[in-house]
Amino acid sequence: MGSDWPVAIQTKSSLVLRDIDVLKTSGKVEVGLSISTGEEKIRRIFEPGASAIEERINALKSLHAQGIKTFAMIAPLLPGAERLPRELADAVDFVLIDRLNYHYAHRIYRENNMEWAMEDRFFAEKGNELKKSFETEKILVNILF
Description:
Layout: E1 7-11, H1 20-23, E2 29-34, H2 40-46, H3 53-65, E3 69-74, H4 84-88, E4 94-97, H5 106-111, H6 120-136, E5 140-143
Parallel strand pairs: 1-2, 2-3, 3-4, 4-5
């Protein structure tokens, strides 16, 4: 990373820690981890191949402690995300929250009786609730919907 170009990395994998020495060499790098929920049971339904939530949060904490700018992308916003503001305190510089923006997951919602979590009302209520909670933790937050 010998140039002065800004670099943004977004992943669902804690394996980003393998490159921490390289990431520390640039002052213009930020690393984000997508975390849609604070509940492992829900994570396993929607993100079966992704790193566990605790692993992702610990990765953010490690990166942040090394002076690397970090963020969490809560997208799609899923039930259980209300646990994240407290867990992400001292781990991120900012948070982005977004709704479900793709349709291939509709089947997963239906199979798990979670259609209510695809509705506009859910996103509006949970998004505002999360925004207030992150602001209480003094974490910058931006709702993208």
